# Entry
Amino acid sequence: MAETKPAPGDWIGASLLRREDARFLIGKGQFVADIRLPGLEDACFVRSPMGHASLRGLRRPAEWAERVYTHDELGPFQALPAGPDIPGYRNVAYPVLATDRVCFAGQPIAAVVAPTRGEAEDIAGLVELDLDALPAVTDAVLAMAPDSPRIHDAWPDNAFITSGARAGDAAAVAATAPVRITRRLRMNRQSIVPLEGRAALAYWDHRLDELVVYLSTQGAHVMRLGIAQALGISEHKVHVIAPDVGGGFGGKNRLTPEEIAVCALALKRGHPVRWIEDRREHLMAAPQAREHVYDLTLYADRDGTMLALEGDVYIDAGAYPLWPTGAFAEASMAVRNLTGPYRIRHIALRNHTVATNKPPMGPYRGVARPGACFAMERLADELARELGLEPIEIRRRNMVTAGEMPYVTAAGMRLDNGDYPASLDEAARSIGLDAIRARQRTGEPDGRRIGVGFAFYTEQSGHGLKEWARRGARVMPSYETCTVRMLPDGSAQVLVGIQNHGQGLETTLSQIAAQELRLDPARIAVRHGDTAVSPFGFGTFASRSTVFAGGAVARSCRILAEKIRRIGGHLIQTDPVETRLEDGHVVGPSGAAVSFAEIGRAAHVRQEMMPPGVDPVLEATATYEPADSSGTFSYSTHAALVAVDPLTGGTELLDYVVAEDCGTMVNPLIVDGQVTGGVIQGIGTALYEEVPYDESGQPLATTFADYHMPCATEMPRVRISHFVTPSAITEYGIKGMGEGGAIAPPAAIANALADAFRDSGAQFNETPCTPRRVVAALEAAEVP
Ligand code: MCN
# Structure
């Protein structure tokens, strides 16, 4: 898709190129690692080499002793209560540096500073640890057995929380339903792997008397809350700046011990200290994602009507909860989203959020829904196979239709609007389902088998107070704020609390401001990611920024536009109500016009030109939350065409289509980019990426030689069709969509594999579907 020129003034819907890319393309982005300050020292961490152990002490090298810091020397730190404030949730502190126990391989034990990273690592290598190995817990299902070793001694079992969702009478349905599909489905553990890992640089600014923290984060304001609290410093003395951020994908929405340690080191050392995470640290110790096990039974009638869903969901949350949200988000979202678009009125689902000897689980693009979608959509396909139906037919028979909306699912999600079956049909048309069926009958000349798989998901976005209160969030992301300012030359600044870290928000928010102000977006600057510059905001995650920050931009610009018209009307001697904004001018009905530059000058430096009684501040601030804070739902059908070699288990993606609806699109070019980026990450989940652990808690993928990221060579051309069902509860009818691309690929690809071997009933119920797992599935099904 290419850049398009919009009709005059119609900036919403215009496919503009992302303005922020220009600086990256010429190497002028500024990331934490690019910041140079006099006296800067590099930090690294002495990390646990064991998965679970008692820490008896450490011996530091005598000549470098003052460069090595343990918890007691760096602290004291105030505990950050991480996690939902709900009954039954067990909290535990994630220590900044371990004191008497280590609970995963890679956990920071001591911090080392030196003039260079290399020197710091050399010193760290001389630190001797006195550790006593403890039995490790590495399987979330086994961890719930009564005789499992405990990770947190005070807990009666290894669960952060066990809870669930019930509706109807699943037990009664189970007793009589003629068809039942029971499966264990497993989505394995992943690393998040943004281009830029975690990074922090901190120093005390003596002139401003404040701690300045450059942080690669998704939310500077929320991180300031956490840093100030952990260090016991007043928030007005903590200034967090997120410069360019090389991707976050959810993982940089949490405050981690290393980042707090860098701030504490800066205070101790009296000069700037930084830590730039390397890949090995990222794979071992950064927030990880996705590890879910589903033990589920789907009950149905002979005609394919889905009746009930029953079972257990196990989420491997790792050893500690991450501030602020803690360890429950994944499980609660998995269960709430499990029935997807289907009319299943009876559910009995338990979820177990389990502590193991692994790094903490963080949110990763799609949060829980890739696993839930994988589980439900695999069950849907297995039901279709059992009944001899086309997989899309089983979906059609069970999907909520446009006429039934708004529809509240058994788990309480309010699906607001859209035409789900139309998206399904479009995906089937676009991938060429009929032609694929004919081709399958003919067979492939190279002996491979081809299969087509479908997966449907909904993506809740724009959810605010009601939803976060229900989840017991301690920091409740319920609104966003924008301050818009007109400068003396008539150009504008938009200051927002959300942040851009790859989504294109500098471009799209300028488009929304341009639409409201009728000003070329080239004359609008968007500023974000600096607690001293932008208004308070919760940051960019949960596909919330366009709805929330876009709404705040629209509202603040409308207030400012009123003022501009008032001043402009005075200058052209016209009643302001009769004026309109057009191309950077206030225009009267007679055609008389005055430019924003003249208005800007009048307000700022020529106040004798101002209408009497009007104050000269050309600035407006507005806060926005959608009308219904339970959210608005985007949705999409993905379809994948694969070719599989039964001998090697190698899978090639031949085609991939997406039929999506995210309401009004601000910038269709960016929407397509977001979908495509998400799909490649989902392909990684489906086929390649996995962080396995051995029984002692050793990670087995700590370099890219073992952790396989998909590359351009694995990427099919993603073909995207759009439906536009505007949301009734947001400005312009926008729905969020930034995560969706990553949700469906594991389900669509596993379904395509199953379709390729439909006759044999081979099962593809564990991701990633590596060649080894594909061959094992074919052997188990006795595929010749
Ligand atoms: N957009 C649009 N019209 C819509 C919806 C969105 O034009 N109806 C555009 C937006 O204006 C924005 C982008 O698409 O430029 C994504 O918008 P939105 O859906 O509001 O999502 P957020 O901006 O809140 O981004 C968060 C989302 C999440 S949760 C993850 S994880 C993720 C993602 O975005 N991480 C990313 N996309 C990413 N992309 C990059 N490059 N890097 C990441 O770390």
